[in-house]
User: Which sequence fits this backbone?
């Protein structure tokens, strides 16, 4: 009998969705978290009738960016139809979770809930839900049209730092509260006709449960509306954005909470089990964090066109740079996120200029220069950086004097050290402690296979570096979270993912790195402040 029970358990599978900017994706994993199926719907090519470019519409003013809400509903239908034709064993799915591009919002018309509760399994969701949105074009994270509203919100709650202290971020154009304020101010009728506002994540969750799904704490932290400490809506932020917002947003729940079972629609139309559980959906960045299967205190560095750092924090220091969200795995903890625009393209440019386009020559040059680069520091912002908001290239010698050029070998080390010292500086500013003996760095993304870069990271961060190449980390993290939520309270995420292959350790800090980079970090801080404070920037680009 015991074998029967355990084989029944083992037959269970878990489903993770991800609705990102350009596509909708589903990943199915076994009970031991092996990927068995991956299915995607690409918005531009598979739903051409919506005429999106990269999944979005950029409006004539160039700053308003939206996506057609109905496209996402149709993509959900298509994804399920594809899953059916690829023989996904719907009946074995024990739990579902998912993620969505962060900050985007969906506006359900008065009366929509009734329709959502009573979907007819004989026809598509898209045909039944086509008239249920009070705003047909969902504002998304690429929108930059709400600058004045951000400043207004900061002022109304007592300043930039105060908004940051409450919500984990200062006013950002893409954050949902400011987008809602814009709709209230420019499209009052639609706002008044709105029964519920969902995030992209909770919207897709709503399609799964056939009812309004609550917003989870982690994605909710990307709205400039949630108090990340009490994990409740911040009344003063709500009032500052639009009236009656608490009612329209509904409740907010921990990210691992079971929010219900799949809808009768999904049971009848696709054969999901009636007791298939739905775990709160979250944002794509929090879900990606889960997909990297970190432990408390890890720092994740994603090395791509732009570099992003994700930090697992227990005691965050919300700062006007970067963002602090409630942690999607451990809701009493936090995660911080900071993005740096000058990533791989900057490194490649220096490789091309100083190492004839060859990584081998780049690595050889690096080996010829000592840690700390004899006191030379370079700051390379070919495109305007996010923090600090500065453009230009700045080189300083060991006396802190600005110089116009470096020898090639020095330039090569300077670009890597300058970038990684900046990543460390901003991580510390957000509350990360690099002196903890447990700190692990998980490197991911295109450049995480480059040993030279990894060694510099290990030295600058004074921590061992592990690499993890996770394709579709948001959908995968969602499938893992589905299992975590399904196992119920008291089960640690580390237990859920313990059977997965451990990432290899690829670099450890060199002796003496701690002192060299501790000092360099202090100098970087000063030099960055210097270039930021200068009224006329001398760019040696
Ligand atoms: C994060 C952000 C983007 C979107 C992309 O703050 O705006 O990473 O989540 O999907």
Assistant:
């Amino acid at each position: 009998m015991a074998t029967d029970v355990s084989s029944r358990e083992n037959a269970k599978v878990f489903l993770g969705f991800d609705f990102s900017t350009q596509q909708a994706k589903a990943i199915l994993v076994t009970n031991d978290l092996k990927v068995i199926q991956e299915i995607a719907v690409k918005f531009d090519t598979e739903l051409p009738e919506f005429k999106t470019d990269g999944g979005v519409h950029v409006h004539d003013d160039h700053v308003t960016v939206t996506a057609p809400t109905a496209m996402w509903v149709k993509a959900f239908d298509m994804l399920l139809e594809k899953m059916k034709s690829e023989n996904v064993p719907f009946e074995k799915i024990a739990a579902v979770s998912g993620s969505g591009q962060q900050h985007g919002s969906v506006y359900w018309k008065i009366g929509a809930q009734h329709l959502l509760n009573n979907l007819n399994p004989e026809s598509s969701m898209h045909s039944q839900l086509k008239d249920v949105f009070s705003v047909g074009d969902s504002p998304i994270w690429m929108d930059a049209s709400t600058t004045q509203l951000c400043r207004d919100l900061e002022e109304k709650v007592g300043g930039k730092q105060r908004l940051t202290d409450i919500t984990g971020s200062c006013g950002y154009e893409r954050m949902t509260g400011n987008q809602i304020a814009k709709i209230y101010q420019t499209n009052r009728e639609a706002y008044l006709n709105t029964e519920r506002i969902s995030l992209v994540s909770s919207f897709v969750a709503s399609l799964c449960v056939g009812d309004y799904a609550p917003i989870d704490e982690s994605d909710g932290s990307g709205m400039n509306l949630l108090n990340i400490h009490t994990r409740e809506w911040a009344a003063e932020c709500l009032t500052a954005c639009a009236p009656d917002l608490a009612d329209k947003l509904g409740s907010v729940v921990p990210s691992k909470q079971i929010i219900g079972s799949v809808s009768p629609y999904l049971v009848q139309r696709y054969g999901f089990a009636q007791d298939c559980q739905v775990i709160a959906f979250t944002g794509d960045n929090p879900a990606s964090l889960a997909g990297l299967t970190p432990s408390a205190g890890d720092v994740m560095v994603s090395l791509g066109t732009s570099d992003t750092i994700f930090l697992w924090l227990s005691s965050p220091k919300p700062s006007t740079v970067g963002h602090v969200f409630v942690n999607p795995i451990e809701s009493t903890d936090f995660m911080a996120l900071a993005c740096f625009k000058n990533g791989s393209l900057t490194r490649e440019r220096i490789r091309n200029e100083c190492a004839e386009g060859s990584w081998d020559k780049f690595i050889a040059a690096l080996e010829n220069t000592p840690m700390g680069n004899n006191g030379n520091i370079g700051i390379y912002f070919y495109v305007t950086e996010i923090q600090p908001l500065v453009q230009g290239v700045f080189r300083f010698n060991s006396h802190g004097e600005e110089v116009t050029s470096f020898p090639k070998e020095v330039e090569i080390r300077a670009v890597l050290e300058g970038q990684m010292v900046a990543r460390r500086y901003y991580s510390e500013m957000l509350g990360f402690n690099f002196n903890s003996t447990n700190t692990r760095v998980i490197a991911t993304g295109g450049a995480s296979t480059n040993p030279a870069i990894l060694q510099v990271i290990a030295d600058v961060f004074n921590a061992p570096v592990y690499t993890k190449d996770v394709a579709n980390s948001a959908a995968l993290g969602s499938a893992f979270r589905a299992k975590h939520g399904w196992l119920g309270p008291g089960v640690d995420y580390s237990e859920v993912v313990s059977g997965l292959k451990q990432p290899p350790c690829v670099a450890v800090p060199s002796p003496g790195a701690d002192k060299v980079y501790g000092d360099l970090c202090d100098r970087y801080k000063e030099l960055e402040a210097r270039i930021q404070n200068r009224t006329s920037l001398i760019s040696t680009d």
Summary: The first helix runs from residue 2 to 10. The first strand starts at residue 13 and ends at 19. The chain has 22 helices and 27 strands. The chain has a mean pLDDT of 95.
